[in-house]
Specification:
two-stranded antiparallel sheet, mainly alpha, single chain, 78% helix
């Protein structure tokens, strides 16, 4: 029997809250962005001469669920291997660890391997179902990247931060890539003219860019927070290499760029007041607070507040997709 304590340790080890955000991101990209955009896109079908119809999602719910499972399993495996390699630094920075205490090291490695085997297998299945088996290699590469990130890259100057930011940005893009292939195949055969799918990539790409920028900023803030442990074990993270003050400046610049891009996106592409109010209150204000917190921070606890605010902003950024669905459904733009 598995005791409640063991289950709690396992859930902490795989960062279940973060996995829920991954699931939420993928579900919202499919149903709050792609689906409403498809209903706004008309095509002329070959089967009924001259008849136009709105586009529909072509990937089955089961296949989409397998894609989500692949992403979640590989992400969870990444968290496990990260804790496996971070025991010493986490003891200094956090004062407690899961791997080596609640979960033995050997068991953690076994959990990591099982999660990755399931994740890569599911990734190949999802790729096979859309007719592009080679895409499964992407899941294999990501699985390997997460291992080497924990074992080596995160100790190197900026490489680890960029890898995490790119992989986070890939989560929403996976939805549009897999659906895009199927949509193209279906409508290339069944429509008089193959529709332009670029708008779907632009919309989801916007969420991916936001995910990249906020993740990169947060990773740098976390490295500043973990300066003591990283310094003790000779890791070449950004704060260890260029100093805490310069790292804060880099994080502030990245957050400021994010705010500016949001302003430009609204001015040139969105210009509806629902978006303005939502982004101003739930995204920009918290980002400005994170900058303020970075400027005044003197302790790891204050830095942790900035890091937590960034995590919250990542969630509110994803939830903006619900606003998009409402705007598109009720023609508010």
């Amino acid at each position: 029997m598995h005791s409640p304590g063991n289950i709690r340790s396992f859930l902490k080890l795989i960062r279940w809250q973060n996995l829920l955000i991954v699931i939420l991101t993928m579900v919202l990209m499919r149903y709050a962005i792609l689906e409403p955009l498809l209903t706004k896109t008309s095509v002329t079908l070959c089967s009924i001469a001259g008849a136009s119809a709105t586009m529909k999602l072509q990937t089955s719910l089961f296949d989409f669920a397998i894609l989500v499972m692949a992403t979640v399993m590989i992400t969870a495996g990444g968290y496990v291997i990260n804790d496996y390699f971070d025991i010493k630094t986490d003891l200094i920075n956090r004062g407690k660890v899961i791997v080596g205490t609640s979960v033995p090291r050997q068991k953690a490695m076994m959990i990591h391997n099982v999660l990755n085997i399931i994740g890569v297998g599911a990734g190949f299945y999802a790729s096979f179902k859309i007719g592009f088996l080679w895409l499964g290699a992407l899941f294999l590469i990501v699985s390997g990247l997460l291992y080497f990130y924990s074992a080596s890259y995160k100790r190197q100057f900026l490489i680890g931060n960029i890898i995490v930011a790119v992989l986070t940005a890939m989560v929403p893009m996976l939805v549009v890539i897999f659906e895009g292939f199927v949509l193209y195949q279906y409508y290339a055969v069944n429509a008089v003219k193959t529709p332009d799918l670029s708008i779907f990539f632009y919309w989801v790409g916007g969420f991916s860019f936001f995910a990249f920028m906020t993740t990169l900023s947060r990773e740098i803030i976390k490295d500043i927070e973990d300066f003591e442990g990283d310094m003790a074990y000779g890791r070449n993270t950004l704060p260890v290499t260029i100093g805490i003050l310069a790292s804060k400046v880099v994080a502030i610049i990245l957050i400021a760029i994010t705010v500016i891009v949001l302003g430009l996106a609204w001015t040139f592409f969105l210009f509806d007041y629902s978006t303005l109010i939502y982004i101003s209150v739930l995204v920009v204000l918290p980002l400005l607070f994170a900058i303020y917190q970075l400027i005044i921070s003197r302790t790891p606890k204050q830095l942790h507040i900035a890091s937590s605010v960034m995590k919250l902003v990542m969630l509110t950024g994803i939830l903006y997709s619900v606003v998009v669905k409402v705007i598109l459904s009720y023609n508010l733009i």
